[in-house]
Specification:
Helix content of chain B: over 70%
Largest sheet of chain B: none
Radius of gyration of chain B: 12 Å
Order of helices and strands of chain B: HHHHHHH
Number of strands of chain A: 0
Helix content of chain A: over 70%
Structural class of chain B: mainly alpha
Strand content of chain A: under 5%
Shape of chain A: elongated
Oligomer: heterodimer
Number of helices of chain A: 33
Distance between the termini of chain B: 34 Å
Radius of gyration of chain A: 29 Å
Strand content of chain B: under 5%
Number of strands of chain B: 0
Structural class of chain A: mainly alpha
């Protein structure tokens, strides 16, 4: 709207007023520079130098009366920097970071937020990040922001800043020295329902955890317990889950953190994240948009993007693969082999006792056990152990029992977990170490029988979609195609039975094939 | 395989308004169409292609992804003249002419 109602004259007036000392016009100026053309014109007219000069003057005075001017100047500089790295560099070269560093001492949440936001836009290069860190911007921001634990926007901005600049090694040390882990975890706890804070917070903690001292701080700050609580409450926040798994993966490399992860039963949270136990999934199964298993998918950009907007929390195929790889690495380090026997016992017991009246706690426990079994089967060694222990027999009994239940709340989640279990087991048929065992125990046959029963028994769209997804995945794996083709003897379709076509109609068919082949 | 494809196609018809089911089922038909000529023939015989054609003819393509997958399957099925004849018989005149 600004681009429609504002003119270059408005901009000229605002610049002239600012230069004449009317600092109230800075808020108008910072809004006008939101319009690309205005911003370009303002930069050409030398507005960066003006803003820097005003900022210098007001920051030195440090009077509370000037806080608004400082904030508006900083915001305007941030907006200009956002438009391109050249402008960002101009601001840095003219001393922007020095001035923002001074502004970071100001005990005002709006000023601090403006500083944090603008620093994110200025820290576009390693040199700028180093400059911001060496001038104490990060440590000052962390310290000053402690006075405003209830400011959600400030927390959001600081988590984003730390997750951005923490990627730079030297900045990471400064962040750790400033005790950022405790600061971030306390904000993540305080704003539990803010998804952005959780995502950025875990991203920052992931970076901090890669440092020996940082990993200790992250554990001591209670990040693992927070992750468990968040996963339980919001399993549908897949991006936060993905970054949390990244953090745990780093923590498993720390001798200090590893025993804590085991003690805190971080495995449970990782299993929940990996198995995608999510309310969102109960309504809709994510439609992947990228190439699967190296197969060529439609290349049209519009098609590739389709589905992404439908759910912001849908992970891409690459992210899902990263999540899977990281989780397997984590579980291989923290999972307990004795868990398998526990899973087997629970499945056996529940196979006998589950009924329409089973309470939600029982169902949740079974779902967790099934998901754990599904995840453990991915781990080299444990997958074979699951086969040796014949856990699939309990799964088959359980599947029959669940399918015999009339419609009840428990049915869909348990079926979904069973499908994931069988889906992961089918991977064992493609691994050298386990394929003989998989074949000798005829699990492929069990799997197909179960899948067919889901498809034929009117189990609802979610189990059907999950089953179809798994079948599609299996048909893409050479080892499993053989199993699938064996289900029935192939009846070669006899084209001689096809109705004869007139030459005209046959010719027209080529129109079809041509149209099908054209993009 | 036949029983698997039959169940897949049955669910495609049953959950015609569920895009996720359509996409997953089309992926299966797509893969079945390239496993072997015999499995491709099964897709034709079991009316998987008829389902796709009727949705195209009815303009019932909910997304570009389902549209592209549908065309991919049909394209793979058109591997022989016989298959093409069969496809032509499964579609209505308006679509072909």
């Amino acid at each position: 709207m600004l681009s429609k109602i504002s003119t270059i004259n408005d901009l000229d007036k605002a610049i002239a007023s600012v230069r004449a000392g009317n600092t109230a016009q800075i808020s108008i100026l910072s809004s006008l520079v939101l319009v690309d053309e205005m911003m370009e014109a303002a930069v050409k007219k030398g507005i960066i130098a003006d803003l820097i000069a005003i900022l210098e003057k007001t920051v030195q005075k440090g009077s509370p009366d000037d806080y608004e001017v400082i904030r508006n100047c900083t915001i305007a500089l941030g907006r200009i920097a956002e438009m391109g790295s050249k402008h960002a560099q101009d601001i840095v070269n003219q001393g922007g970071i020095d001035l923002i560093s001074h502004a970071c001492d100001i005990q005002d949440p709006d000023v601090l937020r403006a500083c944090s936001d603008t620093l994110q836009k200025l820290c576009v290069s390693e040199a700028n990040i180093k400059s911001a860190v060496s001038k104490g911007c990060v440590s000052k921001l962390l310290k000053s922001s402690e006075a405003f634990p209830k400011d959600e926007k400030l927390a959001e901005s600081i988590c984003s800043l730390i997750s951005q600049i923490g990627a730079e090694h030297s900045a990471r040390e400064e962040i750790i020295n400033g005790g950022a882990a405790a600061n971030i975890v306390s904000r993540m706890r305080a704003f539990f329902e803010n998804r952005k804070i959780q995502e950025q917070g875990f991203k920052a903690l992931d970076l901090i955890s890669s440092h020996k001292q940082g990993a200790r701080q992250v554990v001591d700050a209670g990040a693992v317990d927070h992750m468990k609580a968040l996963t339980k409450k919001h399993p549908e926040w897949k991006k936060a889950g993905l970054t949390a798994v990244g953090m745990v993966q780093q923590l498993t490399k720390s001798d200090y953190a590893l025993p804590h992860l085991r003690k805190a039963n971080a495995m449970e949270a990782v299993v929940d994240i990996l198995s995608g136990k999510a309310p969102a999934e109960k309504e809709k199964v994510a439609v992947k948009t990228e190439a699967e298993e190296g197969e060529q998918e439609p290349k049209d950009a519009d098609i590739a993007d389709e589905g992404v907007d439908e759910s912001e929390q849908t992970l891409t195929t690459k992210q899902e693969q990263d999540l899977r790889d990281s989780s397997v690495e984590i579980l291989a380090k923290i999972a307990d082999e004795s868990e398998i026997k526990g899973i087997k016992a629970t499945m056996s017991e529940m196979g006998k006792s589950i009924s329409k009246k089973s309470d939600s706690a029982q169902i949740m426990s079974l779902e967790t056990k099934l998901n754990t079994a599904a995840c453990l089967s991915l781990i080299p060694g444990l997958g074979e152990e699951i086969l040796k222990e014949d856990v699939h027999n309990q799964a088959a009994d359980l599947a029959k029992k669940v399918q015999s239940l009339s419609d009840c709340e428990a049915k869909t989640p348990i079926l979904a977990s069973l499908i994931k279990f069988y889906d992961n087991l089918s991977d064992l048929n493609n691994k050298e170490a386990s394929k003989n065992l998989y074949g000798s125990k005829a699990i492929g046959k069990d799997t197909l029988e179960f899948y067919l029963s889901v498809l034929e028994n009117n189990e609802g769209p979610i189990p059907v979609a999950l089953t179809l997804r798994s079948i599609g995945k299996n048909l893409a794996m050479k080892g499993n195609v053989v199993e699938y083709v064996k289900v029935n003897n192939l009846d070669f379709f006899d084209f001689s039975n096809a109705l004869s076509l007139s030459p005209h109609r046959a010719e027209s068919s080529w129109v079809l094939i041509r149209s099908l082949r054209s993009p | 395989m036949e029983v698997l494809l039959e169940a897949t196609i049955k669910n495609m018809n049953k959950y015609g308004d569920n895009e996720e089911v359509q996409i997953r089922a089309l992926e299966i038909l797509d893969r079945a169409s390239q496993i072997s000529p015999a499995t491709a023939n099964l897709v034709l015989k079991l009316d998987g292609s008829r389902h796709i054609l009727s949705r195209i003819e009815g303009g019932n393509i909910p997304s570009k992804k389902t549209g592209v997958l549908s065309l991919q399957v049909l394209n793979k099925l058109c591997a022989s003249k016989e298959a093409l004849h069969h496809l032509a018989n499964q579609s209505n005149d308006r679509f072909l002419y």
